[in-house]
Amino acid sequence: MAADAPSPDAATSFDVIVLGGGAVGENVAQYATEGTDLTAAIVEGELLGGECSYYACMPSKALLRPLAVADAAANLPGITTPEVDAEALLARRDTWVSHYSDAGQVDWAEGAGLQVVRGHGRLVGEREVEVVGADGRGPQRLRAERAVVLATGSVPVIPAELRELAPWTSRDATGVVEVPDELVIVGGGVVAVEAATWMAALGTRVTMLVRGDALLRGLEPFAGEHVLEALRGLGVDVRLGASVVGGEREGARETGLGRLHGGRVRLEVESDDRRDTLEADEVLVATGRRPRLDDVGLETVGLSPEDVTGGGALPDWLHAVGDASGEAPLTHWGKYRARVIGQRILAAATGEATEPVPDQVPVPQVVFTDPQVAAVGLTEADAREAGHRVVTAQVPFSGAAGSALLRDDVTGTAQIVVDLGTRTLVGATFVGPEASELLHAATIAIVGTVRVHALRHAVPSYPAASELWLRLLEELPRALRAG
Ligand SMILES: Cc1cc2nc3c(=O)[nH]c(=O)nc-3n(C[C@H](O)[C@H](O)[C@H](O)COP(=O)(O)OP(=O)(O)OC[C@H]3O[C@@H](n4cnc5c(N)ncnc54)[C@H](O)[C@@H]3O)c2cc1C
Ligand SMILES: NC(=O)c1ccc[n+]([C@@H]2O[C@H](COP(=O)([O-])OP(=O)(O)OC[C@H]3O[C@@H](n4cnc5c(N)ncnc54)[C@H](O)[C@@H]3O)[C@@H](O)[C@H]2O)c1
């Protein structure tokens, strides 16, 4: 059973204490102890399983998948188009978030021999942690004999001009209960484009205010262009170069997850030196996230949040992983780093050899819009900026029989970026239906430093979408065909 802080009979000393029981915290605790007698406590202030399980990845993908299938079906002659059933869609979301119960995760943790301590944890000195229960009980003092891991995740950044409006954050969008007739989304990143997709499907009139001139900056420009076209096709009013400079709302207050947070919102919007007023039932802030390190007691050990996220060395007993570390805020990346760091903690305790880790591991990411965007490694621009001499190959997503067969209106683009010196892949981006499934081959090619001439002998099945790889390799200069 999970321990409520403070629990008089709970052990107060553990080999490893993990602050934050998101997917990443769970993984690091598991990898730091598995197959040994080492003990670990996971201190969790909300739900074990964290943001991804209840408020982020799981609910958003539970909402998006039926929509993508319905849209594909609408463009596949031979089957009757399924209709979106909002109530059933939200019910699917509720199932996938286990109705906001973490009982299953607690069972898993206990099965893995991990102690769950409920409450807010903070450092109070070297290897010393204090936990205060959600009801204010405590504090309970815990001691880490070997390591403390900060896996406290991240919080949304809310621009000052919107704070007084009690805006929706991504939690409300994924947990939507009261579907607004009109919604303004501020931001043009991943949360914004995914949320716009499901909110539009639920029948909301969505306006996106994007301060830059493109969506999904940081990815290949063609990715943002495809998604812009798709969102506009769904009826989303995407306004580029538009910034919120002020706003007001009557009765702005927290009313609960996914419920309207007050009366109508009035926003002052600046674009092209013009000011307009925009009204809506709700405003969703999707302007990025920052590591949650303000309230973990770093000052008690002479550290600041910047010391943790800056990439410098931390004391040997302290680690940061996942969103809290300032690295790519993605579940799979955090879990990868958790496996590496967990294994290092275990190795230090047992004398086992540490697993070798390559210097440069590329970060993959999938944006689950329709079409999907899947990218790994460097964009062409980033590769050039990093000093690589590169060549790219680009083909339409419909360029192979298998990818064209996926639906009759296939749009999208596939591109690889190849370093001319090493003749290996340094980046790849696929935009198209089910593009996520093409990505891992690129990740393997980069991690394995496979020369592109060798990839020509990796034969994709016919007619599968992976035949796009053949098209891409054929587009490269002939000189690269020789090893
Ligand atoms: C809408 C949305 C959709 C997303 N979709 C995807 C996706 O499809 N794929 C993907 O890879 N990534 C996705 N992400 C990113 C992903 O959610 C995060 O990268 C991931 O949750 C990070 O995991 P974490 O364990 O580091 O942090 P979290 O999941 O945030 O977990 C941290 C935990 O620590 C607890 N905590 C914090 N401070 C304390 C404290 N002092 N004491 C005790 N407990 C504490 C919190 O309650 C929380 O449970 C999405 C993000 C959002 C916002
Ligand atoms: N499918 C996935 O893997 C997935 C899905 C959702 C979120 N995530 C993760 O969550 C993280 C956070 O997502 P996000 O969309 O909030 O952040 P983001 O960094 O992807 O996008 C933030 C957007 O807000 C804009 N912005 C920033 N400050 C602003 C301001 N003051 N006013 C107006 N616009 C502003 C930026 O220009 C950008 O368009 C992402 O980095 C991503 O790693 C992943």
How many domain regions?
3
Sketch the major β-sheet.
8 strands, mixed
Strand content: 25-35%
Name the ligand types.
flavin-adenine dinucleotide, nicotinamide-adenine-dinucleotide
CATH superfamily of the largest domain: FAD/NAD(P)-binding domain
Task: Tell me the name of the CATH class of the largest domain.
Answer: Alpha Beta
Please state the average pLDDT score: 96
Number of strands: 22
Describe the structure.
There is one protein chain. This protein is α/β, with parallel strands linked by helices and 483 residues long. Helices cover 30% and strands 25% of the residues. It folds into 3 domains: 12-54 and 97-155 and 290-350, FAD/NAD(P)-binding domain; 158-287, FAD/NAD(P)-binding domain; 364-481, Enolase-like, domain 1 (2-Layer Sandwich). The chain has 16 helices and 22 strands. Strands 1, 2, 3, 4, 5, 6, 7 and 17 form an 8-stranded mixed beta sheet that branches. The chain is globular and about 60 Å long. The structure holds flavin-adenine dinucleotide and nicotinamide-adenine-dinucleotide (NAD).
Q: What's the helix and strand layout?
A:
Blueprint: E1 3-4, E2 13-19, H1 23-33, E3 40-44, H2 50-54, H3 57-74, H4 86-96, H5 103-111, E4 115-118, E5 120-125, E6 128-132, E7 140-150, E8 154-156, H6 160-163, H7 170-174, E9 182-186, H8 190-201, E10 205-210, H9 221-233, E11 237-240, E12 242-249, E13 265-271, E14 274-280, E15 282-285, E16 289-291, H10 305-309, E17 318-320, H11 331-350, E18 364-367, E19 372-377, H12 380-385, E20 390-396, H13 401-404, E21 413-419, E22 424-432, H14 436-447, H15 452-455, H16 468-475
Parallel strand pairs: 1-4, 2-3, 2-7, 3-4, 7-17, 9-10, 9-15, 10-11
Antiparallel strand pairs: 5-6, 6-7, 8-16, 12-13, 13-14, 18-19, 19-22, 20-21, 21-22
Bound molecules: flavin-adenine dinucleotide and nicotinamide-adenine-dinucleotide (NAD).
